[in-house]
Design goal:
With about 140 residues, this protein is an alpha+beta fold. The chain is about 25% helix and about 40% strand. It has a single domain, classed as 2-Layer Sandwich (Alpha-D-Glucose-1,6-Bisphosphate, Chain A, domain 4), CATH 3.30.530. Belongs to the AHA1 family.
Length: about 140
């Protein structure tokens, strides 16, 4: 039996370098991650912290596992309000044409009963990332 994972693949009209910047720059992440700012020095073993721009509270945290610019980024990921063990998020970037990249996001190390919740959480973030890189605007998503 395979272990549970959330897997998302999308194609984005951008360069690997610009996508890498979008994943690792605090100012960039705040634009498409619905006000969350991701901070790290991106050295393997260093902390990764997610802050809510509304009150600067720590919402999620992790530790850098892989930093292979601009191909693979991986870190552990734990929501600060949950008691589950941290999962792992891996971003894989591959050229897929002229100014097109394939982005695969795998969130594993999670439980079967949380896969759908993670999928629902990642979907708008990744759609917003794609839209922002391609149009320089964000989506106006209403969460219910």
């Amino acid at each position: 039996m395979s272990k549970p994972a959330m897997i998302h693949v999308t194609y984005i009209e951008t360069t690997p370098e610009k996508l890498w910047e979008a994943l690792t720059s605090a100012a960039f992440t705040e634009q498409y991650w619905f006000g969350r700012r991701i901070e790290s020095d991106w050295t393997i073993g260093s902390p990764v912290r997610f802050f809510d721009s509304a009150d600067d509270s720590l919402t999620d945290s992790g530790e850098v596992l892989v930093y292979d610019e601009p191909k693979t980024l991986a870190y552990t990921f734990k929501n600060e309000t949950q008691t589950d063990a941290p999962g792992r998020v891996t971003f894989t970037i591959e050229p897929a044409g002229k100014n097109v990249v394939k982005l695969q996001v795998v969130h594993d190390g999670i439980t079967e009963d949380t896969v759908e919740g993670w999928r629902n959480g990642w979907a708008p973030i990744l759609a917003n990332l794609k839209t922002y890189l391609e149009t320089s605007r964000t989506l106006e998503i209403t969460f219910s």
